[in-house]
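User: Some background: our group keeps a shared notebook of sequences we're curious about, and every so often someone picks one and asks for a predicted structure to add to the entry. Today it's my turn. The entry only has the sequence so far, pasted here. Could you supply the structure so I can complete it?
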Amino acid sequence: MTAIPVHRARDSAALRRKRAWSIRASWWQGLLLALPMIAMLAMLVLYPLILVFIEASSGAAPLERYLDVFRDPASLRALTTTIADSLIVTVLVGIGAFAVAWTLHITRRHWLRTLLWVVTLVPMFLGVVVKNYAIYILLSSNGPINAVLEAMGGSVALLYTDAAVVIGIGYSLLPYGILSTYAAIGHIKSGLLTAAESMGATRLTAFWTVAVPMARNGLLASMALVFVLSIGFYVTPILLGGPRTAFVATYISQQINARYDFPAAAASAAVLLVVAVVVVGSALLMVGGR
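Assistant: Of course. Here's the predicted structure to add to the notebook entry:
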């Protein structure tokens, strides 16, 4: 039998170790795996956004179109309505999402946890028209809310108002706020609140001084997500708000379909995109990249 040299045996063992499977892929392997997603983002997101800015900047005076977004009364009114209503939706959804997510996090009642999960997830499987029509029925003049108010001796016009738009958008975005907030507060241990209470703090003080600071970053990120989603709503402002509560998306539709002014519509879309980027960037600065 021929003996294998020692150096060849060592080289063979080293080669086997180099070819051993590792959970950590090299940078080029990771790039190859991410290449289909990068290509899709480039074609479906980056390229259309570049076209928007090119269309808005075309012509002899490209900056004038951006300035017209703030100088035109109708455009400025749509922009201010969009930002104001979206801020209200963000605050209300943030409060409601944190309350529901915290209850899901600490409750030991299985029936309550199941009920909250059903209430959270079912609206996500409903179409936009179905959800808006449900809100429309609730807020209409002959709906259940006004029926209760009339029984109490009063009546309020809820439909075709900013409040109706806020309710409709908030109802659609509340599940997103709950899920993102719940994921952010999952690391908070309930034992920390118990320890604070054992040191003399009340339940409210322990919650406000322990849970809220630890959940601040996740809550801010969730609210940024809700705001960015809310400024792009199109169907809800039309169905529930009417022409008096036109969002920027509705105004862009009018510029394209009624005026055929594609550069002006692109300028409005670019301004709205800049607002979203500023909000997301501010949220990243406040909560950190992680």
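Suggested note for the entry: The mean pLDDT is 83. The chain is about 75% helix and 0% strand.
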